[in-house]
Amino acid sequence: MKKTQTLLGAVLILGSLTIPTAHLNAQTQIQTKNAAVTPVSVMDKAVYKHFEVLNISSSERRLSEMGKIYSSDFHIVDTFFEHFTCKDFNNAVNEIHKKFPGQNFTLVEVKTLNNVARATWKLGDALNGENIFLFKDGKITDIIAFVSVNK
């Protein structure tokens, strides 16, 4: 129970999530009971690789690289979309490249906890955001992304 409370507290500190506490408790218990702790070095490397992959201009190469860092049941949700497969997410990244040509994702900061990482980033001068990454077996399983459009 202590692990559950610690992780839940950390998740609540990460941002003002509007997910009901009961759901967070259930998700946290699943995360801590069923998954070995992913080493910080592995999480850091995967987060850096995530942003490198987003910057790959070739859709085919990007999709291939996604398979190396995301789990088979990968899921991402952000301010504008939700995707349940690497292929769908890759299509969204293609649209980002079209909308913001020549701009690259830049990682600003990474912080890690047990099987959780938080990263702040920017996309040129157009966007900035904060991502929460969840890990299992050394791979990214989920990303929750908070995106802000710069005016």
UniProtKB/TrEMBL annotation:
Signal peptide (from-to): 1-24
Key word Signal present: yes
Keyword annotations from UniProtKB, A to Z: Signal
InterPro entries the record matches: NTF2-like_dom_sf (IPR032710)
Protein name from the UniProt record: SnoaL-like protein
Organism: Pedobacter psychroterrae
